[in-house]
Amino acid sequence: MDYENAEKILEVKHLKQYFNVGKADEVRAVDDISFDIYKGETFGLVGESGSGKTTTGRAIIHLYEPTSGEILFDGKNVDAFTSKQDQHDFRQEMQMIFQDPYASLNPRMKVKDIVAEGIDINHLAKDDADRTKRVEDLLETVGLNKDHSSRYPHEFSGGQRQRIGIARALAVNPKFVIADEPISALDVSIQAQVVNLMKKLQREQGLTYLFIAHDLSMVKYISDRIGVMHYGRMLEIADADEIYAHPLHDYTKSLLSAVPVPDPEFERTREEIAYDGSQENDGKERHLVEISPRHWVRAANDEVSLYKQRAQEASLIKE
Amino acid sequence: MDNKKDILEVRNLQVNFKTYAGDVKAIRNVNLDLRKGETLAIVGESGSGKSVTTRTIMGLNASNADIVSGSILYKGQDLLKKSEKEMQAIRGQDIAEIFQDPMTSLDPTMKIGRQIAEPLMVHKGMKKEKALAQALEMMKLVGITDAENRINDYPHQFSGGMRQRIVIAIALINYPEVLIADEPTTALDVTIQAQILNLMKELQNKISTSIIFITHDLGVVAGMADRVAVMYAGKIVEYGTVDEIFYNPKHPYTWGLLSSMPTLDSSGDSLPSIPGTPPDLLDPPTGDAFAARNAYALKIDTEKEPPFFKVSDTHYAATWLLHPDAPKVTPPAQIVERQKKYAKMQQDWLDAQRPTTPVEEEEEQQ
What is the pTM of this model? Predict the structure, then answer.
């Protein structure tokens, strides 16, 4: 990725997404996060369950009304479209691939109707023949057979269903695709197939991905940049290689140290780094600070020097 | 492992499931040994028969399962010949299981102390008070904080990781000889997973249980297993010690599994993947079931099923590539790297074994 000349496609500014606001059980699922996604890149969002990564994805595609904050897509605020046309375009340009290939396809619809639903709603097909051709092309793109189009979802395996979900998302020619744990329900050998397919489609169609996952090795493989979330906050953002090689935040270090590696010798000597989450809630005001070029860490004013020092030790800053 | 005695022996096991479409041949002649105190990992894709194998051991198969042949010897007795009543006495007492999903494997209407104490009351006829006291000890052992106050809580009051600890406590309360763990951490986050795996290792040291560990996460296998069996389409295709499987794999399916997992330093445009999908076990293919997905398949693979070839005393693989007449092939790049590492480890091991006489001689000269 050439970030010097990269263009922002998505800007998330101080997004807050609270549930049960004002009640005793108020949940601050996403608590003031800001980040940008550039055209053509894959931004990986990682974190444990409950960290707010799925909520962030859903807020971006506007399945929720944000509590506060702004989401700009192509420079336009998705929460305040002035015209019906803008709203319409947005729904066509941003699509989602869901986690569970078993629950996200309507069992009573044929594959061709599932894939063509977006085509129909957006009136993209000239006539029936065009619709059929589009569906068949899409199925071919994702590695399925055109004969599959008149079958029902239950006739497919998990990996094939996820391909149908991808074909459906691509049917309306989106620019931006949110993939929420698209491979966690699949077997290892099939995961690689789906990830390869997503990468190929990105190259061919210039797609931008927001890739949400908890499988850290796969996220690193597919992403250009990665954001780490915890307790609804963004703790660290950096290039994928850099965040794995030189994590600066304690939480990121702890998270990476817990990833099992398929190498017995490494596993025998692995040391997990414990993390005390209470240090995030000591009342200090924190925000993301650029510690080294394009490496952001959430820090209080008096912690910046600590992270700068860590970055120097990892020779991320030359001085 | 000082005591190499087998505690569980599965011999020539074949299990079919009767369906409207015909018989699904889920387990096709599986042989397994489990030794005292060891952890044996079974890896493979969904549908490869890992869970059916262990469910057959537990006698928990669905009612349409048909055990065509085979025997499962536990301490010399064939579990397949036991009546349901006899199996009930063994389950939870001698052989226990940790199930995959901590959200659904607990009774939501029963207090957790009672659930942990239940196996003691059922199997040992223990009085409730005494059983609850032991349950409390077990809760502390598996690391449930503030156990005294939480013993009367219900499952929904616990997080996923804590619930899995409760499930482990139930499985271990009778100190079983064999513990079957079917994807025990798949539903958990990596940080919680690490805690649970450490806990299992620690408890295994304390009560020297033998563990059969089922998972598709090769990273977890690398950290937990002493020996590994790789299953494909209802058969074991390769087994060996954890080092042999990870650093010197011989079966192309094992190669595929290991290379399709991105390591933290893989990069490049595409990940090596295993093409296609597993075969339909309603009508398993003749020859090697993996042949259709195997870039290294030989002509004989489609005709004749490969037998096990011996790689070492502990390492066997069922692939024709190991036949003396087979052409020499180069495995995928990642596997070659692993084999290099293995060769180096072997050399280091030999160096360490070599007597250090030269050094002593020098000392004598001085």
Answer: 0.85
